[in-house]
Amino acid sequence: MAFVLLVGLGVAAAFLFAASGVYNVAASRGHWWIVDQFLRFGMENSVKARAPETSPNLDDADLIRLGAAHFHGGCAFCHGAPGSRPSPVVQHMLPSPPDLAERVDRWTDGELFWLVKHGLKYAGMPAWPAQDRDDEIWSVVAFLRQLPDLDARHYEELALAEVQVDGGGGRELATAESDPDGVGACARCHGDAGRGPQTKLVPRLQGQSRDWLARSLRDYAEGARHSGIMQPLAAALKPEAIEKLATYYAGLPPLAPDDDPRRGSVEEGQKLATSGDPGAEIPACISCHGSDGSPDYPRLAGQPARYLSAQLAAWRNGKGGTSPTHAIMAPIAARLTDQQIADVSAFFASQRVVGHPGLAP
Amino acid sequence: MTSTAERETAELPNPLPRPRDELRRLQAVWAIPEGWRILSAVNNSVIGYFYIGAAFLFFVLAGVLALLMRVQLAVPGNLFLDQESYNQIFTMHGTVMMFLFAVPAVEAMGVLLLPQMLGARDLPFPRLGAFAFWAYLVGGLVFFSTLFFDMAPSGGWFMYPPLTGSRFSPGTGADFWLLGIGFIEISAIAGAIEIIVGVLRTRAPGMSLDKMPIFAWTMLIFAVMIVFAFPAVILATMMLELERAFDWPFFIPDRGGDALLWQHLFWFFGHPEVYIIFLPAAGMVSMIVPTMAATPLVGYRLIVVALIATGFFSFGLWVHHMFTTGIPAMSLGFFSAASMAVSVPSGIQVFSWIATMAAGRLRITAASLFVLGFLFIFTLGGLTGVMVAMVPFDWQAHDTYFVVAHFHYVLVGGMVFPLFAAFYYWAPAFSRRALSERLGKIAFVLMFVGFNIAFFPMHIAGLIGMPRRVYTYPAGLGWETPNLASTIGAFMIAAGVLVFLLDLIRHLRPTVGASAGNVWNAGTLEWLENDVHAARSVPFVESRDPLWEDARLSADVHKGRYYLPGTVTGRRETIVTSAILAEPQYVVRLTGPGWAHLLAAIFTAAFFLLLTVKLVTAAIICGAVAIACVVAWAWDTDSPSAGDVDIGGGIRLPTYAVGAASHSWWAMIILMAVAGALYLSYVFSYLYLWTVRPQDWPPIAPLASHAGWIASAALLCISAAALWASGRSIRAAVPRLWLTVGLTVVGLLTLLLGLGADVASHWLAGLRPQHSGYAALVFTAGFLQAEIVAAVCIMGIFACVRILVGLTDGRRSVVFDNMVLLWGYGLGQGALGLLLTHGFPRLGM
Amino acid sequence: MRSVGTLGIGLWLAGPIIWATHFIIVYASESVACTRLDADSHSLIAGIATIIALASIAFIAVRSRAGRFRDTAFLRTTALTMNLLAFLAVTWAGIAAVLLPSCTGVG
Amino acid sequence: MNQSVLEPNGAEAERIADLALMLFGGAAIIFFGVMALAAASVWGGVSVRRAIASERMIVAAGIAFPVITLTALLFYSLWLMRANIQGNATPPAGRIEVAAEQWWWRITYVEPDGRRISEANELRLPVGREVELVLTSPDVIHSLWIPAIGGKLDMIPGRTNRMRVSIDGPGIYRGQCAEYCGGPHALMAFDVIALEATEFDAWVRGDVAGGSTETVRGRGIFEESGCGSCHAVRGANASGLVGPDLSRVGGRRTIAAGTLPTSRENLTRFIVDGQSIKPGNLMPPFGLFAAEDVDAISAYLMSLQ
């Protein structure tokens, strides 16, 4: 009885405190020191309690590059990056986003992962838009691990690759005809004419069908296909821009295979890709993804093995998406074993594209 | 001829007047904890009430699921339930009805009725009984609630692999079934041990087996059948869970397993299960009919024979469920023959009841109506049972609604109707008011008519082609009318149950004293005036219907003129009698209320359920806490002898017993029978796979070296020697307890090492459980042995600690003796395992 | 009623126990014979097992009228009836063994 | 079309139907006898009740009577099983392999010369010719049941069961999977079409009708969209073994294993959204295609007879 009374009193007191308006919520005022310490203490312990204990190999160049490219477009505005300070606007947030180069060493890999994935309440840190794409989140963590040691030049190399970012003249800057940071540039990850992607974790778009490229971008934009990296970028594109991009990449000649898959057997992959595995209810991949398949489907020849594996795994493991292509592929991917994914990825990575108009005879 | 006055003074064991505070002290000792502390109670009257309430709750829940199914099937192509929901619901309906309602309900009736009926104060292991109940309740509720989270199993209550293997049933639904049900089976076994020892060892003096009420006979056979039937399904669930969790391919044909192995194990349990449910219900009928007809049961001896014969024959029927699997004709013939044989005992019972009704004059009460309804429905179900035992007929009827109709006639007719009869019949003994005859009759009419409208048309639906377990059906095959009728009937049954619930709310006033009393003028001891301590004194029994034979018995018992009218040791106690003749042997002190068993139940449930959702660390912690709770509860169960005590009539009984006289020794023997049955099921599985998968047998698989089994056998021999020596040293004229402890530790270590050597030898030979069904079974031997060794080690440490603190010695040795029994068993099982996994493959067959 | 001891209980249940043993032998021997030996050997095993089982039940039934259970009507009549039921059950299983060929599917 | 045990049209089904009727008759007599006895025991006169109330009555009615009837029944049912077994002594005149998969039927007609003709979800049988059905399953346990022709037999992974069927006259019957096999177990039926033997032979050996000019477009879309990676169509670029053979799908009475009547509309519905018609089946929903493309595929499939 006494206990109930005590709890009741506590609740009443808290209610009165809030109702009186005594507490100042102004961001301009900051927290009392003790409140700040208490919130920080609570936040750190909450993260520690929930973070996963294991992580993939984070010294992976492909992973770091992908993370860097995303960081540049997605994170630097608030957190700053080597060579550029965060926006003065975000510096007046409460709490203000920290400079990550100083802070990342305080956290374990798993804790960083958790923070990137789930964000922080009341701190302006958003959650990852695609909660079923852990593979992407790890790339950001991999990059963050490199961040403390990066200077501006190395950062640009990693994040912008070889994409020339020329601000142009004053007119271009004044009329916003150029984007000085090249934030939205597809080529930073996917490459362009004659130059493949910087990381084996993204697809080679060169020479894919226009239909498929445009559909993929629309699916990302609508959230029907899940990716924390692609969704925000695609959502910012106008329909005409999507058409133009699709036309551009569809017209580029496909690249020659240059992947050297470390896992998986090309021979086994070939068997699976050409004949399927009827006992495991797996159809032959090339019926749809071969050179004479419907333009609604992607051509897989020459794609990096790691990208293919990651996509198949995402389809298999995640709730995935809601797009019609997802509806077709997800149930098939769900029947593949890890080994089969590795094999079939290795096979396609080793294949040369045939029959594309953009290819020289 | 003696006069009444002489009899008052001379013949009865205890003279009047009784000492003034005797009754008060007795009541204080047996007092039920008040308020919310009632959760710590262990009195059979309290636990029995809870138990029946919980079982009835699951009956209602599973009944609601049945109604959902009937709504879905009311019309063809219905969209009320989707396919996955329907599949989960029919799986849960069957599972809950069989495992969470039927078996617990009859076990509950046993817990509630047996001590009073047998003239005992309580069951012999009150905390074990309470543990079994709480484990069942917690586990059952969590299991049922999986339905609300879309995590319920959907593989059917029979869970046939490969459908329930990880390939075709990913997700945790099947794991919930396997771990949850496996756990509830363990609870049922704990209850069965309690019931066997209770029936055999705590009967009132003079109540020899031939004077025992039929209900007690049925509960005895029920419990013995559980001991032999449940281990088969426990092994099966264990193997399927090992397959799902660790990829041991017992049931995967491509990898040397066999899909039918599951069916053999499951139905070796599943068919006796039907009789496990039916026999106690028939026992209730055998109690109700004589009372309502006011005449002793006609054919008592024939009924006992029928019960025993059913207990045996029902184990020869399991392939009866596998007539369409394509096994050889002659096997089908054997099982068909056994199916015929089992119908004879049921016939004997039916005609005995009819003869009894004819011998007296049946009063038409609500209880009698439910009994008559039972006779009608059960007879019809029995006749369709003979039909499906005819192999060619079964080829058509199997897995159709004909079978659904058949077993609902047998189970609802054979178990639910008697249970309702029992509710109306026994309510006055446990409630301040009887239930309403008027509402009871209304409930009966609704349930009886509703039942036949619901289930008779299913015979027809099955014969015109409707298979079982379909969530929808097309129009135009003639199935519409019977299905609609079934749905209407199902709701009539539900209405009947609602009327019954209304009756409960209006009239049931649970009590352990001051009950409505012997309103039916029945003849058996549960109708004596009862209180928290059961009857005031324990009568001497000279006939099957003692209250009819001796009109003064009730009053004399209540005055305390029979045995043990108070408490002689200041603790809860009951008289332990010999198994056959019920001669008083000693007075056992029983445990009272406590929390350890309740916590043990909760944490055991948590262990299994957390394991299901793969929270292994949390599960292990809960498992350790559960073991700690069991140890805590066991710590004060082995009270030292309080010397000989006087129970009246010049009988002085000891208060401590060791060896075969000890009731605890009996419990241990039964537990060993359970373990033995589990191991025999394993041996069957091993040999079965040998017959059906000759292509996977060694020498194809790597065979362990000779060194392995020789080392293991040598270690077992050392352990056996230590066992013998430690037993001798504790009873030596000059006991050296340190020596006993040392020998025990050495013995346990060598037992453990023996197991390790065996498993290691297979492992070093390159065999892995994932290789094949054969390999998985080889390692299963080690797995089963590890369970026994773990139990022996825990008991051994427990015994050693007690020896060291002076609580256990050569005279006060029950704890040590029990450990020795299981240790001996473990040695035997280990040796058999060596013969099987090392010797058998070398026979070159 | 009088106490009969463990052996007495065993004898009392002899009929059903013999039935169970016979059942295991004929069923298991068919499984083994059909996969590891040959069909003819099973017919022989089943036939011999049935004859032995029936003879033992009959022998025990006759003995129980005069032996251990002589003084106790309950044990005597119940043992006799159980023997009768077991005899019938073994006979029925025997009929199946005689009428049906071993190791043959029925499809 | 029927799926009834009580309207047999095959030797085994007829024997079982006779047995069933006999059992029903006998059971009815016994049931009413027992109920009459029970009624007499409750409401009968004193002399009647006295006659009933004895152990002798229990022995007579509860032991002697059942033993006699059950012995007779056992002989009868064993004799029926013998009849079945002896019928199997002669080699069958034809062989059809039936593999049950979640949740459809893969049917292969094996010609005497060893040629194998793949079909699905519709079993055609020759009248008057004894055929052996070879029953297997690659995934979970199923059970083949055609009530009008005979009893059911399970299809168990890792095992092969054989069932002889002989059918008396032409007609159309329905069969269904009788063992719960998960998911849409309820939607796993098939039609059995009994044809005169000559008609049957002509059908088995007959050619697959090629597509007409109207259906060329449909065939093109069918092939480039990857349909052939799961489905086989003889003569087309489609040889998949994952799903049902579609070589003569237009000639079948139903699609999706007895779930829908065969029609262009239903084929379209199934291609676009088969998961809501038969949840859990392996075919992904092809919502990707334009409506006219799917319609063209359906038209092509309808032309395959």
UniProtKB/TrEMBL annotation, chain A:
Residue ranges of region Disordered? Answer: 253-278
Name of a matching Pfam family? Cytochrom_C
Q: Pinpoint the Cytochrome c domain residues.
A: 62-148, 165-253, 264-352
This protein's UniProt keywords: Electron transport, Heme, Iron, Metal-binding, Transport
SUPFAM superfamilies reported for this sequence: Cytochrome c
Q: Which domain of life is it from?
A: Bacteria
Q: Where is the composition biased (Basic and acidic residues)?
A: 259-270
> Per its UniProt record, what Gene3D superfamilies does this chain match?
Cytochrome c-like domain (1.10.760.10)
Q: Which InterPro entries match?
A: Cyt_c-like_dom, Cyt_c-like_dom_sf, Cytochrome_c_Oxidase_Subunit
Q: Can you name this protein?
A: C-type cytochrome
From TrEMBL, chain B:
Question: What is the protein's membrane topology class?
Answer: Multi-pass membrane protein
**Compartments (UniProt record):** Cell membrane
Q: Which UniProt keywords apply?
A: Cell membrane, Copper, Electron transport, Heme, Iron, Membrane, Metal-binding, Respiratory chain, Translocase, Transmembrane, Transmembrane helix, Transport
Record InterPro entries: Cyt_c_oxase-like_su1_dom (IPR023616), Cyt_c_oxase-like_su1_sf (IPR036927), Cyt_C_Oxase_1 (IPR000883), Cyt_c_Oxase_su1_BS (IPR023615), Cyt_c_oxidase_su1_bac (IPR014241)
**Might you give the EC number(s) for this enzyme?**
7.1.1.9
The Cytochrome oxidase subunit I profile domain sits at 24-539
Q: Does the keyword Phosphoprotein apply?
A: no
Q: Which PROSITE patterns match?
A: COX1, COX1_CUB
Q: Which Gene3D superfamilies match?
A: Cytochrome c oxidase-like, subunit I domain
Q: Which Pfam families match?
A: COX1
Name its pathway.
Energy metabolism; oxidative phosphorylation
Top-tier EC class: translocase
**Membrane-spanning ranges:** 46-69, 89-113, 125-149, 176-202, 214-240, 274-293, 300-320, 332-355, 367-393, 405-427, 439-464, 484-505, 594-611, 617-635, 665-687, 707-725, 737-757, 777-807, 819-840
Catalytic reaction list:
4 Fe(II)-[cytochrome c] + O2 + 8 H(+)(in) = 4 Fe(III)-[cytochrome c] + 2 H2O + 4 H(+)(out)
Q: Which family is it part of? A: Belongs to the heme-copper respiratory oxidase family.
What name goes with this protein? Answer: cytochrome-c oxidase
UniProtKB/TrEMBL annotation, chain D:
Which locations, inside or outside the cell, does it occupy?
Answer: Membrane
UniProt-listed InterPro entries: CcO_II, CcO_II-like_C, Copper_CuA, Cupredoxin, CuRO_CcO_Caa3_II, Cyt_c-like_dom, Cyt_c-like_dom_sf
According to UniProt, the reaction catalysed is: 4 Fe(II)-[cytochrome c] + O2 + 8 H(+)(in) = 4 Fe(III)-[cytochrome c] + 2 H2O + 4 H(+)(out)
What keywords is this UniProt entry annotated with? Copper, Electron transport, Heme, Iron, Membrane, Metal-binding, Transmembrane, Transmembrane helix, Transport
Q: Does the keyword Lipoprotein apply?
A: no
Q: Give TM regions.
A: 20-46, 58-79
Is the keyword Hydrolase assigned to this protein? no
Could you tell me which Gene3D superfamilies the record lists for this protein?
Answer: Cupredoxins - blue copper proteins
Domain Cytochrome oxidase subunit II copper A binding, residue spans: 91-206
Q: Where is the Cytochrome c domain?
A: 213-305
Among PROSITE patterns, the record links this protein to: COX2, COX2_CUA, CYTC
- Give the family, as the similarity comment puts it: Belongs to the cytochrome c oxidase subunit 2 family.
Name of this chain's protein: C-type cytochrome
Q: Name its species.
A: Flaviflagellibacter deserti
